[in-house]
Amino acid sequence: MADKFQLSRRTFLKLAPAAMAAGAGCYPAPKSSLQRRGLAARVGDPLIAYPFTENVIHRPEDGQKIDGVVKSGCSFCPSSCRHHVHIKEGRVYNVYGEPDDPVQRGRLCAKGQSIPQLIYNKHRLLKPMKRVGDKPTSNFEPISWEQAYTEICSKLLEIKGKHGAKAVAAKATGRQTRDTPALQWRFMELFGSPNTTHEGIVCNDGGGVALKMTFGNTGQTNGYGPDPITGTEDLGDSKFVLWLGSNHAETHPVLHGYMQLRRQAVGAQWAVVDPRMTFTGAGANLWIPIKCGTDMAFVYGMIHHVIERGLYDRNFVSGWVLGFSELQSHVLGKGYSPKWAERITGVPEATIREVAERYATTKPAAIITNAGIAHQVNAVDTYRVIAFLAAITGNIGIPGGGANFLHNSPVGLTLPPIKGAEPITEPGLPPHPDYFVESVLTGKPYQIHGIIYAGNMMTQNASNKRTQEALKKLDLFVSLNLFPQEDCYFADYILPTTTFYEVEAVGMRRCDRGIRWNSKVVEPVGESRIDSRIWIEMGQKMAELDKKHPPAYWKENLKAEWLDTRSLWNTVNPANDKTSAGMTADRMEKMSTPLRWPCPTASHPGTSVMYLDKPEWRGIFGGKRFLTPSGKVEIYTKELQGRLEPTGHSAIPVFYTSPENLDGLPTLQYLDEFILSPTVANTAGGNLVHKVKIGVAPGKELEELRKKFPFQFTTGRPNALHFHSITHWAWGLVQQSGDRYIQIHPDVAKQMNVQSGDYIKLETPRGFIEGPAVVWDGIQPNTVFVPMGFGLKQVVRTAMDRRVWDSVNNLTETYYDTLSGQVCYKTQLCAISSHPGLQIYKVGHPAEELGGGSGAGGK
């Protein structure tokens, strides 16, 4: 094992320069692109002197005296770093990290440091905007908040009167404050709609569903940093970490820095399973390239070896696991051996066996996963199989272990029960926002006519062409946004929102159930408002306009006093959620570290390791160790099997993967029948999902598709500088980051006679994109990678002499995991070809086009 690990490091050293180029976007400029001017030619150029704001970044050591320091936080990745924000004359002057947080250690990533560039940005949306022209155009006029609320709420009631409340849908986003989703849910429930959802369906909710099914709660099992209950560093004390589909180094750079330091301290070994050599794989002992969408087979091969060699933890299995014998019969009976897994995954049988032995015999050992597992049609079933592996090896309920399915946290604002509302009995649509689009276009199972959306539908939703068609067809589309992003051009109303610095807020380290209190730093720019306030104030407007219900129905259930965020967390949440009663705003404000759930009292230190066999854990939940109906880990029970069978799934999954796979592997078939989901219920009415057949052989359609599209296409984060599309509005990040590239293997490049920087065309059955090739031997030869988050309205890229690029979701289809709603962004078929020339996209200033005024640089 050690030799193989060492071999991988030598291989990495050979590939490192290419890895850095691909990861940072620093590859040779495309031959026909605009050539960047040298800095010497830019003397006096306004682009050098912060074109979007005054020069607001100053340092005390440069002699700048400040008025004070406010402790706020970041709203980008789920690491939720604490920020020490220097202010002067009511403006942000600089940002530093929290030195007293042993995980953060004073550090910030580039995204966190860019927040002032988002606050004081001439493209900020400053006022509510109303469409006065056709879609998709920039014909908008500014209106007052009063007019916006009146017209939006009137239109919502009109839609409800014609089509029913279910014809309106809403989605939250992770950049909002932690209390916003609860207030959105409350508004939609009072309105009567079951179609309310959140960013988890776009992100990583599949892991939370699997965790709840197996262990009884949606929360990630272990945490980062010192744990006062066990006296350990928890994940920082892991001796072996198996990273599955997680480019942790670039998606969570501050947390990953902590993990690297702890790895050196304890001598841990890391194995990274990923189709590409990412920065995470580059820093590991072993990178294991795997075919897209086959992680379930890899883990089943490990489980087979663990069971066959008797490497499982007999004491834990006999005392705390239900269904081990069924798992054993399933794995051995199906022949899910390492040799079988090699044929599926492309990973050598010997590697699977050795990783299985290392994981099973090293204590503690942790598994950390991310979007590589979540963004698949088999998301929950793969996560379940991973959870089985962690459980049978005894790596659950111990420091340094766990099934750490990132971004899954049960912490949120809990409001008192609704008074006087009729329970929602109609089921919602399949719980992913792409199905909003399907509903609008097809009317199945019923039609959506209005959407209130936080985020960017044009860069998040699959099948971009269909998304645009749906947005044109809607009776009402309301966008909650900081900037005029791509979907704003299809909006009927745009409501300007705030950054975290402009509000009091709770931020969340969703990687380990931790939350922080972020103090307000500066006043909101322009007329922008915090998202939670928007939902409360729309509720107050509904009290005036809704003729079916008395005003008290809205005012008492969505109270104006809840505009006080501190009061929400000091009084309302503790009174309604006993497991987080100790997580008050006043307490968190004094802490330099996140406070982790569960935390039932003001004296409780917060929980890092879930499912400990200790009174500190059991006492919170009435003596239970695991929160399943049985109180044990549930791999298989008759009850669970009975719940899943009607959907086409089973408690112990059979192997299957994406409908578009290269090797003719078993897949799933969506039937023309909707059934109530056994695992997701966004309201009391539940959610519909398609019934499926699992493990079916692909039909002739796939054979024909593979002839035309002979490569596997996958997506992901471009580099550590970006978090979806919002960071493309910070000029410093755009200046440092490269283009939206197309990453291919050298063997493919040789066949095509292209080099890095040459334009190539990438096509799927949905459409095509073009861009510069990045030739990189740290990728599977049959795999093509394209980063997400780019869009054609990212005008800051133009100002920085960067290209704007259309969304990768021109290419993706809306295949989804019916147990969670997760959309398959990672495993689809494509074709590539050389492309000698490419149009240069340049765009204007959309904030000005949308009537946003002269920008947000003024006080």
Query: What is the count of β-strands?
Result: 30
Major sheet: size, sense and barrel closure? 7 strands, mixed
> How do the strands of the widest beta sheet line up side by side?
5-4-18-17-16-6-7
Q: What is the helix content? A: 25-40%
Poorly predicted tracts of residues: 1-56, 839-845, 851-859
DSSP helix count? 30
Report Rg: 26 Å
What is the average per-residue confidence, as pLDDT, rounded to a whole number? 89
Distance between the termini: 61 Å
Give your account of this protein's structure.
The protein has 859 residues and is an alpha/beta fold. It has 30 helices and 30 strands. It has a 7-stranded mixed sheet with strand order 5-4-18-17-16-6-7, with helices on one face. A 6-stranded mixed sheet has the order 26-28-27-30-25-29. Helix 4 crosses helix 20, helix 6 crosses helix 16 and helix 10 runs antiparallel to helix 13. The protein is globular. The N and C termini lie far apart (61 Å). The N terminus and C terminus are likely disordered.
Concise structural overview:
This protein is α/β, with parallel strands linked by helices. It is built from 30 helices and 30 strands.
Provide the descriptors you would attach to this structure in a database record:
single chain; 859 residues; alpha/beta; 7-stranded mixed β-sheet; 30 strands; globular
Any chance you could write out the topology, listing elements then pairs?
Layout: H1 2-24, E1 68-73, E2 82-88, E3 91-97, H2 110-113, H3 115-119, E4 129-131, E5 140-142, H4 145-163, E6 168-171, H5 180-191, E7 196-197, H6 205-215, E8 224-227, E9 232-234, E10 240-244, H7 248-251, H8 253-266, E11 269-273, H9 279-282, E12 286-288, H10 295-308, H11 314-320, E13 321-322, H12 324-334, H13 338-345, H14 349-361, E14 365-369, H15 371-374, H16 379-392, E15 403-405, H17 434-442, E16 450-454, H18 457-460, H19 464-473, E17 476-481, E18 493-496, E19 505-509, E20 514-518, H20 531-545, H21 551-557, H22 565-576, H23 585-589, E21 595-596, H24 615-618, E22 633-634, H25 638-644, E23 667-676, E24 688-696, H26 700-708, E25 711-716, H27 731-736, E26 742-744, H28 746-752, E27 759-764, E28 767-775, E29 783-787, H29 795-799, E30 828-834, H30 846-849
Parallel strand pairs: 6-7, 6-16, 10-11, 10-14, 11-12, 13-22, 14-15, 16-17, 17-18, 25-29, 26-28
Antiparallel strand pairs: 1-2, 2-3, 4-5, 4-18, 8-9, 19-20, 20-21, 23-24, 25-30, 27-28, 27-30
